[in-house]
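U., I forgot to send this yesterday:
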Amino acid sequence: MDKMKRAERMVAVMQVLMSKPNMLIPLTLLAERFGAAKSTISEDLLAVKESMRYTGQGRLETVSGAAGGVRYIPEINPEEANEFLVGLADRLSSPDRVLAGGFLYMTDLLYDPAILRPLGLIFAGAFREKKPEVIVTIETKGIPLALVAAEALGLPMIIIRHGNKVTEGTAVSINYVSGSSKRIQSMSLGRRALEPGRKVLLIDDFMKAGGTALGMMNLMKEFEADVVGIGVLMETPRESEPKLVDHYMSLLQLRELDPYKGVVRVIPQEII
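Result:
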């Protein structure tokens, strides 16, 4: 290939890194790909690292030694995160989203990549220091959120089912009481899905009383897993709806929902 100018090479290097988030890429591979010395690539990476620090769109992490390299850690700066949540709360506060029975329509947003990606980055930034090894969610609406969080953290995702699937082999099942409806329900997870003793991060779309989250925590105990965090997109106010779990993080709060008056008010939680 023709020799690239430094500016072109830096852009190309950044594209390679951003296309493989959380993956350790050897400097040798970059040097061979772009026909440059490792020392030259190192200088490029320093400039890229400074650029990312300035924009707040992620950071580069270098690992020294023969097996070392560089990895791109995707991030979102707090200002952008807070601005995004304000906009999302405003969209969810539309009276058109109020459904009969006192429900809030969220499905279209939960399957929109433009919405999901920032949410995944926010969750990743909040829980990265906890060093989770697996993202765990429960079907169905929590799946897209958990998937983008898993991508941002570079981790696998596991789905808890409401019923046992034959294709997943033997499974561990538990009964739990839904905190909002007080109904007894069941959830299960295949024995092969999760190795014992892993650090897990629980992700879900909504928390009312926390019965589902508590059930997920109890199921994790059956696998001797260590729950290092719980993240939910939206919750009801804690002062009016006591929760069955503590130490969780929510991004939005449903302050008011009146299906008869068609009134809904969602507020963002501040991200530090």
